[in-house]
């Protein structure tokens, strides 16, 4: 073989090897074969609460669309930080999602230090929906309405207790805002999720709870709980004859929400596929039927919608937490 021919062969082999070396990277970044294995959806609460219920309903519908099972895994504790930190530090390949709630927007202001640094550790997938919290007491409670609650809270400062799924959650801050705006004193009792909190409410260990609609709806339906008010500015069609707390406590508004995140650095094509699947699942008849009684308004828009919404929530609650010197414990 001549020297010139050898040079041609060597150059051809070099180009072939170089292009082969780039193929795995291109495939990994394109997400063209995504998903090809089960996807984990982390719920940063104990089983039985609103986020857990919504995740399981959503997971079934997304699994059908994606052709891979969505495995829901509960990682409760530390005001959602254990579960969210797990996902923030997971491989950014689309196979680890977290369902975020109100706590995601308030933790930067409420926590002295976040284990994952900041919310920039996540990339948004979709704002699933928003809805009211519901102020509930057990069915046999002597507190019959908002007027009775306010009178009791003011006559016995600090004696009434309210449960929450953890520090920094919407039920926690719902209670804090209620106490501040009504000029009353109630005592917060945090749990590791809505399930344990509701169990103690039913057992009489705590007096009330500003529960998410998704968590409270089944027990309101079977008569184990009684609703006193909703936390949105206007009454919710899902809770007939239940007044807005704002009718007795002017300026009171708290909104619960659910959003999906993946670790920052996840390929845009993978996020787009997850967004498309989650949007389809959230708008499916099966999902809509399951959440119809929970007052959830479906958003299911592009990832940027979640980013914009949470930025506004962070701003609003940061001011409230700072102005009222609210701590995470």
UniProtKB/TrEMBL annotation:
Pfam families associated with the record: TctC (PF03401)
InterPro entries in the cross-refs: BUG (IPR005064), Bug_dom1 (IPR042100), TAT_signal (IPR006311)
Source domain of life: Bacteria
CDD domains, sorted: PBP2_Bug27 (cd13578)
PROSITE patterns per UniProt: TAT
Lyase in keyword set: no
Gene3D superfamilies: Bordetella uptake gene, domain 1, Periplasmic binding protein-like II
Annotated signal peptide: 1-28
Alphabetical UniProt keywords: Receptor, Signal
Family to which this protein belongs: Belongs to the UPF0065 (bug) family.
Protein known as: Tripartite-type tricarboxylate transporter receptor subunit TctC
Annotated organism of origin: Ottowia thiooxydans
High-level lineage: Bacteria, Pseudomonadati, Pseudomonadota, Betaproteobacteria, Burkholderiales
């Amino acid at each position: 073989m001549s020297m010139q021919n050898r040079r041609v062969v060597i150059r051809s082999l070099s180009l072939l090897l170089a292009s082969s070396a780039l193929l795995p990277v291109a495939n990994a970044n394109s997400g063209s074969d995504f998903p090809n294995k089960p996807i984990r959806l982390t719920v940063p609460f104990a089983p039985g609460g609103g986020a857990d219920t919504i995740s399981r309903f959503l997971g079934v519908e997304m699994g059908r669309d994606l052709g891979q099972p969505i495995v829901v895994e509960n990682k409760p504790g530390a005001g959602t930080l254990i579960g969210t930190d797990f996902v923030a530090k997971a491989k950014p390949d689309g196979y680890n999602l977290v369902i975020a709630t109100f706590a995601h927007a308030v933790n930067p202001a409420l926590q002295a230090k976040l284990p994952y640094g900041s919310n920039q550790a996540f990339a948004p997938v979709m704002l699933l929906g928003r809805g009211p919290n519901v102020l509930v007491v057990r069915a046999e409670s002597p507190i019959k309405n908002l007027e009775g609650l306010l009178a009791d809270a003011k006559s016995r400062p600090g004696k009434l207790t309210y449960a929450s799924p953890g520090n920094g959650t919407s039920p926690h801050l719902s209670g804090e805002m209620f106490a501040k705006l009504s000029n009353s004193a109630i005592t917060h009792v945090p749990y590791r999720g809505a399930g344990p909190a509701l169990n103690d409410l039913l057992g009489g260990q705590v007096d009330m709870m500003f529960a998410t609609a998704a968590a409270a709806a089944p027990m309101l339906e079977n008569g184990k709980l009684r609703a006193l008010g909703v936390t949105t500015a206007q009454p919710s069609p899902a809770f007939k004859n239940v007044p807005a707390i704002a009718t007795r406590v002017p300026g009171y508004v708290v909104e619960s929400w659910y959003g999906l995140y993946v670790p920052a650095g996840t390929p845009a094509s993978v996020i787009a596929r997850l967004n498309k699947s989650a949007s389809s699942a959230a708008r499916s008849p099966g999902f809509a039927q399951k959440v119809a009684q929970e007052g959830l308004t479906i958003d299911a828009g592009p990832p940027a919608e979640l980013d914009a919404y949470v930025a506004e929530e962070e701003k609003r609650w940061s001011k409230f937490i700072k102005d009222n010197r609210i701590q995470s414990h």
